[in-house]
Design a protein that fits this description.
The chain has 224 residues and is of the alpha/beta class. It contains ten helices and eight strands. Helix content is 37%, strand content 22%. Strand 5, helix 7 and strand 6 form a beta-alpha-beta unit. It is globular.
């Protein structure tokens, strides 16, 4: 993507009512106005709150919002030029139950209050295979503790990925921590029983992975 195109998208994001772009200083100083008040101040309803972490173009957030109009969805990514597409589509199609938040995912416990979130989707994250990159994996123990803090009791996490490494790493970690693995599938399109929202929504990159013959894996889990 050219720099001019990125700048245009950044500028356009600033005009979108469904995009929130706090500064890091605002967030870590606990001055972020939406923390604990997403339903009240942003969505203006009392519906359940679902996050997509590393939302990219926002395809999953937008399509989940279409499928579940009685839930609120927030796509989170630091790359605003990417989620611009999802934000713009939502405005064009008048999808009111989805928003986008430009921030680092490691700040999630500053962005949301304890027990404020009902579900988390992690879709096609970078597996960060090298050992020295372990701290950046979105299912490492530090991230899991942050998710546990903001999730309500019985809240669930969905991990959908093309990386067998990420799938196996997360399963092993969850088993060792004795968390509750509700469902696991290492090839959702060739095994029966995968939830509809896992197979009915495909991102741009997921379609490319499938064309190359890669398996798509999925785990649904929650904390004890």
């Amino acid at each position: 993507m050219g720099s001019k195109n990125k700048l245009r998208r950044f500028k356009e994001n600033e005009t979108f009512d469904n995009v929130i772009q706090p500064t890091r200083e605002e967030v870590v100083s606990n001055a972020f106005e939406y923390k604990g008040k997403w339903r009240e101040k942003f969505f203006k309803n009392d519906n359940s709150l679902v996050l997509e972490l590393g939302c990219g173009k926002g395809e999953y957030s937008v399509n989940l919002a279409k499928a579940y109009p009685n839930k609120n969805f927030i796509g989170i990514d630091i790359k605003g030029a990417r989620f611009w597409r999802g934000a713009k589509t939502s405005i064009e199609e008048n999808i009111l139950n989805v928003g986008f938040l430009r921030s680092q995912i490691e700040l999630i416990d500053f962005l949301f209050d304890e027990n404020e979130v009902d579900e988390i989707w992690i879709t096609f994250p970078d597996p960060q295979i090298k050992y020295k990159r372990t701290k950046h994996r979105l299912t490492n123990p530090d991230f899991l503790q942050k998710y546990k803090k903001v999730l309500r009791p019985e809240g669930v996490i969905h991990l959908k990925t093309d990386s067998e490494f990420m799938h196996g790493y997360t399963l092993g970690l969850l088993s060792g921590m004795e968390e509750i693995i509700e469902y696991s599938n290492h090839d959702v399109y060739n095994n029966h029983g995968a939830p509809e929202e896992v197979t009915s929504i495909q991102t741009f990159y997921e379609k490319q992975y499938l064309e190359k013959g890669k398996s798509i894996t999925y785990i649904r889990f929650r904390f004890r």
